[in-house]
Design a protein that fits this description.
The chain is α/β, with parallel strands linked by helices. Helix content is about 50%, strand content about 10%. It has a nine-stranded mixed β-sheet, with helices on both faces. The C terminus is likely disordered.
C-alpha cells in the first residue's frame, strides 16, 4: 500500500472510532512513521491504539470498512483528501496540533489546495443578516485585500461570508477559499451552489473536515469556525451581535493567538446589531473605521507588526524586514520591547539598537 493511501485509510478509520479526538489521533498516528509499508491500517491501529484503549478488533474492522466506503464515495464525487503528512497540508494546522490545539489532521477538498500555501490568508466573517452597509463593506474589503495578494477565507454562509467570497473573486488574485460545515457532496446553503462552483473554477478551493454524506449538527458550524481562523493570518469581523457563529470564530482566533480586526466607527459602537463588535473591541480587538482603503492599510501594517513581534520573540533578526517598516512602526516595536531611544534617532540607529537588544537577549537565554 502506498504511504499516502495508508495514511488516509488509517486516519479515516480512526475518525470512525468516534471516541477518539483529533489530538489523540494526531499524537498516536505520528508513531506510524516507523512502521513497514506492508502493514495494514487495521493491524497498525490494533497494535498502537486498540490494546491501549481496549478496543476490540472487530470494532476496528467495522471502522475500516466505513473508511473504505468514504474513500470510494470521494472518488465518485471528485473529492480529494489531504492529511497532515502531505507536503501541501497547511502548516498552520500542523503548528496548532503541535501546540495541542484541536484542529483536524485530515481534510476533504475540491479545487486548488495549493492556495492554502499562500502565507497571506485572511478570514472575513459576519452575520447572515447584516445591514446593507456591512454587505457592501465586506465585498469592498475582500476585493481590496485580494488586490494586495491576500487569499480571502470565509464560510460560504449567506450574508457577510458570501460578500467576502465575491469580493475575493473580484480582486487581483481572483480566488478565495470556503470552509464548509458539512460534506462536499451537498453544498450548504443550497443557494450558494453556483458560488461554490465559481470558487473552484476561478482557482480557489472548498474545504471541510466532514466526510461526504456524514450527518452534520448545529455544533458542526461552530467547529467549522475554528478552521477558518486557524488557516488565516488574521480574522476580520464585519458585523455580529453577542451570540452566534461569528463570535465563536473570534473566540477561536483569541485562543489561537491570531490578530482580530472588528468593524467599528461612528454609528456602530452603540448599535445593538453591532453589540458583538463593541464587546470584541473592548477586549482588545483592533477597531476598523469603515473606510475601506484606510482599513486595508491598518490591517496590513498590524499584521506585519504582529508577525515581526513573533520573529523578535524567537530572538531572530532579519534586517530586511525592519528596513521595510516605517520609523514610526520600528519605534512601536522598540516600545513593546522596552528599548530606549532618543526622539531624534534615525531609522538606521533604531535598527542597530534592536539588533543589539536581541543579541543581549540571546546571550542571556543560553
Amino acid at each position: 500500500m502506498e504511504k499516502h493511501d495508508f495514511n488516509v485509510e488509517t486516519l479515516l478509520t480512526l475518525k470512525q472510532l468516534k471516541l477518539l479526538n483529533n489530538l489523540y489521533i494526531y499524537e498516536h498516528f505520528k508513531k506510524a512513521a516507523g512502521f513497514s509499508s506492508k502493514i495494514l491500517p487495521i493491524d497498525f491501529i490494533h497494535s498502537i491504539i486498540g490494546n491501549e484503549l481496549n478496543i476490540p478488533l472487530h470494532k476496528i474492522q467495522e471502522a475500516n470498512i466505513k473508511a473504505k466506503l468514504i474513500r470510494s464515495r470521494c472518488k465518485e464525487l471528485n473529492i480529494d483528501i489531504i492529511e497532515f503528512n502531505d507536503i501541501s497540508y497547511p502548516v498552520e494546522l500542523i503548528n496548532l496540533l503541535e501546540r495541542r490545539i484541536d484542529v483536524p489532521p485530515l481534510l476533504f477538498y475540491k479545487g486548488h489546495i495549493n492556495r492554502l500555501n499562500n502565507s497571506k490568508k485572511i478570514a472575513i466573517v459576519g452575520t447572515r443578516n447584516p445591514t446593507h452597509e456591512s454587505l457592501n463593506y465586506a465585498f469592498k474589503l475582500a476585493e481590496g485585500l485580494s488586490s494586495h495578494n491576500y487569499s480571502v477565507i470565509s464560510g460560504l454562509a449567506i450574508g457577510c461570508d458570501t460578500q467576502a467570497h465575491l469580493g475575493g473573486l473580484s480582486g487581483k488574485i481572483k480566488h478565495t477559499v470556503a470552509i464548509l460545515a458539512g460534506g462536499l457532496d451537498l453544498i450548504y446553503p443550497a443557494e450558494n451552489q453556483k458560488l461554490a462552483n465559481e470558487i473552484v473554477l476561478q482557482g480557489g478551493a472548498l474545504l471541510t473536515e466532514v466526510a461526504p454524506e456524514e450527518i452534520i449538527y448545529k455544533w458542526s458550524f461552530t467547529e467549522r469556525n475554528r478552521i477558518q481562523s486557524a488557516l488565516s493570518e488574521a480574522v476580520v469581523i464585519i458585523e455580529t451581535q453577542l451570540k452566534g457563529g461569528t463570535m465563536a470564530t473570534a473566540n477561536y482566533a483569541f485562543k489561537q493567538k491570531k490578530p482580530i480586526f472588528v468593524l467599528g466607527g461612528k454609528g456602530r459602537i452603540d448599535n445593538i446589531r453591532f453589540s458583538g463588535n463593541t464587546k470584541l473591541i473592548s477586549k482588545g480587538a483592533i477597531e476598523l473605521s469603515g473606510v475601506v482603503e484606510k482599513d486595508i492599510d491598518s490591517i496590513i501594517k498590524n499584521i506585519n507588526l504582529f508577525n515581526l513581534s513573533i520573529k523578535t520573540n524567537s530572538f531572530s533578526f532579519d534586517e530586511s524586514t525592519y528596513q521595510s517598516l516605517s520609523i514610526k512602526e520600528i519605534k512601536q516595536i522598540c516600545n513593546e520591547r522596552g528599548i530606549d531611544y532618543n526622539k531624534s534617532i534615525s531609522k538606521i540607529e533604531l535598527i542597530a539598537k534592536i539588533r543589539s537588544h536581541l543579541q543581549k537577549v540571546d546571550i542571556f537565554s543560553e
